[in-house]
UniProtKB/TrEMBL annotation:
The species this protein was found in: Streptomyces liliiviolaceus
Region (Disordered): 125-149
Pfam families: ABC_tran
Keywords (A to Z) from UniProt: ATP-binding, Nucleotide-binding, Transport
Ranges of residues in domain ABC transporter: 17-273
A cellular-component GO term for this protein: plasma membrane
Name of the protein described by the UniProt record: ABC transporter ATP-binding protein
Positions with biased composition (Basic and acidic residues): 132-149
GO MF annotations, alphabetized: ATP binding; ATP hydrolysis activity; transmembrane transporter activity
């Protein structure tokens, strides 16, 4: 079962995800925090978008609300044409499983499963792959392959992430960079409408981080995928097609074809000064 197209509009103008009038207030009364203060933003399909901004500007909150991991106080969040606020818990869970991929700073792999089994886990849970025994050892071929078009897709993914010779290893036998590459492959395995990545290079050295970012870029440009990435790092943001900048819960700027230097300059224009990671110095 393939995910439905992001929208019915033509390629190039399709919207993978968007929020409209997004407001998120944590707490109430004197201690209320307005983490999102009326944001309208569109994440186009087939594009790599980075979300940047000072600490506390609302980046993670925006990502979580756009991805249906958290709910907006007011406004609306859409994946394709589907408004998340109209879904009950069950449908929202299914939408997240079938139409969204996630990559987090902590790799979140299942330690008892092999690389191949981790990559196909979302599809197995969705009943799109072969069955899995309760002991965590897959009944499939265990080589990360699937039959038909999903087999070809997984095969292409394994090639792109360069893990062919590690498919039977467990996560503990891999470096951090390799583990994150598995997490990236898993996020794309079900051909979701959009992959949300929250500081995907936060736990990696710069060389492994670069590999993971190149991978995200290749998935977008060669495999027509959509990525939305939260990052503090101007070097990471420079891998995106476009950067959106938040400050105080508002969208304050967008930058096409970013470079690390231009992103850093833009960040410096916010209150305070920022070191090369965009964190307050
Ligand atoms: N669960 C929560 N309860 C209360 N306040 C929260 C909660 N989550 C976030 N906030 C507040 O909302 C604001 C935005 O937080 P958010 O984590 O989205 O920012 P961020 O830009 O991702 O920050 P960072 O770069 O430091 O991760 C901050 O003021 C934060 O303290």
């Amino acid at each position: 079962m393939n995910a439905p197209p992001a929208t019915t509009a033509t390629k190039g103008t399709r919207t993978a995800a968007r929020v409209a009038g997004a407001v998120k207030v944590y707490g109430a009364g004197d201690t209320a925090v307005r983490a999102l203060d009326g944001i309208d933003v569109t994440f186009p399909a087939g594009r790599f978008t980075a979300i940047m901004g000072p600490s506390g500007s609302g980046k993670s909150t925006l990502m979580h609300c756009a991805a249906g991991l958290d709910t907006l106080t007011s406004g609306a969040a859409f994946i394709g044409d589907t408004e998340l606020g109209t879904l009950d818990d069950r449908r929202l869970t299914l939408l997240r499983r079938d139409r969204i991929g996630f990559v987090f700073q902590a790799f979140n792999l299942v330690p008892t499963l092999t690389v191949a089994e981790n990559i196909t886990l979302p599809m197995d849970l969705a009943g799109r792959g072969r069955g899995r025994r309760g002991d965590g050892r897959g009944e499939g071929r265990g080589d990360g392959r699937r039959d038909g078009s999903s087999g070809e897709w997984i095969d292409a993914l394994v090639e792109v992430v360069g893990l062919r010779d590690r498919l039977h290893h467990r996560p503990a036998e891999l470096s951090g960079g390799q583990q994150q590459r598995v997490a990236v492959a898993r996020a794309f395995a079900g051909r979701p409408d959009v992959v949300f990545a929250d500081e995907p290079t936060g736990n990696l050295d710069s060389r492994s981080g670069e590999e993971v970012l190149n991978l995200l870029g290749r998935a977008v440009r060669r495999m027509d995928r959509t990525v939305v990435m939260v990052t503090h790092d101007p070097v990471a943001a420079a891998h995106a097609d476009e950067v959106v900048f938040l400050a105080d819960g508002r969208l304050v700027d967008r930058m096409e074809s970013p470079t690390a230097d231009r992103v850093l300059d833009r960040l410096k224009a916010f209150d305070g000064t920022f070191d090369s990671k965009g964190a307050p110095s």
